[in-house]
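Sequence, please.
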């Protein structure tokens, strides 16, 4: 997009439209020319913050058919949160003015698979991988409490819990959502067909009449 949308609903529809183009193999590859690149040099105004898994198949600008300056992207394995993640998302919303935050998970997630395996077998991976697994484990336990044991079922729970966690831990985000200036949407990406499915949302993401 050349200009930031004025509402969270507008931003969400722009992302969904881009994903439809990607799925239909009809991408526009917007905002990737030399003139647009030069126009962004003085500053950026992304229309959405994308917090997703680091999985190499989850390239946000590609699967949502966006270009330079459109998305402020934060990625970690299993989209686990920490101070750096929260600060980055707050920057995208409060400083850059993005009206939408998307939490993007995907099916067959390796981090969720590892956390599930740790819960089932009682063994954790070495090094800092253990930290990632420990941050995903509460989602595994929450899913199991609801009778959900398959990896993709746990992914949905993890995306929803991450969405809730952002609002619980960040006063900046919660105030923006309460004021209607920002919304948070949890999405799950399907690796095979490229579609995204909404898991949950907080804030105004429906198009206004």
């Amino acid at each position: 997009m050349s200009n930031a949308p004025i509402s969270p609903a507008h931003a969400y529809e722009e992302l969904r439209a881009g994903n439809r183009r990607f799925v239909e193999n009809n991408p526009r590859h917007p905002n990737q020319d030399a003139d647009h690149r030069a126009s962004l040099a003085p500053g950026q105004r992304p229309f959405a913050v994308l917090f997703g898994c680091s999985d190499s198949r989850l390239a946000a600008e590609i699967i949502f058919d966006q270009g330079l300056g459109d998305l402020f992207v934060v990625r970690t394995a299993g989209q686990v949160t920490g101070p750096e993640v929260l600060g980055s998302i707050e920057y995208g919303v409060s400083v850059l003015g993005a009206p939408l935050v998307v939490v993007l998970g995907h099916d067959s997630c390796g981090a969720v698979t590892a956390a599930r395996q740790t819960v089932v077998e009682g063994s954790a991976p070495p090094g800092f991988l253990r930290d990632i697994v420990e941050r995903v484990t509460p989602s595994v336990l929450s899913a199991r409490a609801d009778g959900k044991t398959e990896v993709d079922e746990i992914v949905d729970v993890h995306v929803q819990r991450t969405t809730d966690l952002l609002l619980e831990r960040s006063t900046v985000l919660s105030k923006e959502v309460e004021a209607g200036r920002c919304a948070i949407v949890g999405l799950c990406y399907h690796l095979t067909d490229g579609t995204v499915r909404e898991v949950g949302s907080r804030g105004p993401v429906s198009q206004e009449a």
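The chain has a mean pLDDT of 93.
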